[in-house]
Amino acid sequence: MKYCSRIVLVDNENEFFTPEAVELIKLIDTQKSIKAAADVMKISDGKAKKYIKAIEKYLGESAVVKTRGADVDGYNVHISPACRSLLEKYENFLKQSEAAIKKNFDLIF
Questions:
Q1: What's the rounded Cα separation, in Å, for the pair 18 and 9?
Q2: How does pLDDT run across 62-98, given as a tens digit for each residue?
Q3: Distance between CA 97 and CA 43 in Å, rounded?
Q4: Is pLDDT at 38 greater than 60 in this prediction?
C-alpha cells in the first residue's frame, strides 16, 4: 500500500501554488521562456499564464521577469526574486511535510 499527498498553497480560498504551478515555474527558470515551459508540460500558453497570474496575485508583484535575450520572442524570462523565495519556502515545507506524512503513514499502516 502507498499514499499520495498533494500540497497546495491557498490564499482567500484560491489555489495559487499547486504542484503544476511549481513545475511550470521551475521549467520557466530552466527554459527561459513561458512558451517553452508550457510546451514541455503540454499545456496551453493561456493555462500557463493563468498559473502565473494566480502566483502574481498572491505575491503582489511579477512572478516572472523578461529581459532582452535570445529566446524566440527576443526575451529571456526568469522567475523573480519574490517567486524564487516562495518556491524555496514551498519546497522546504513540502520536504518537511512529506517526512512527517511518511512517518505517520508508517506508524499507522
A1: 7
A2: 999 988 766 556 678 999 999 999 999 999 999 999 9
A3: 28
A4: yes
pLDDT at residue number 71: 54
* DSSP sequence for 13-51: TEEEE-HHHHHHHHHHHHHS-HHHHHHHHT--HHHHHHH
Q: State whether residue 10 is helix, strand or coil.
A: strand
Residues 84, 24, 71: CA angle, nearest 5 degrees: 90
CATH entry, 15-108, from 1.20.1640.10, 3.40.630.30, 1.20.1290.10, 1.10.10.10 = 1.10.10.10
95 burial (CB, 10 Å; 0-12 / 13-18 / 19+) is: exposed
pTM (global) more than 0.90:
no
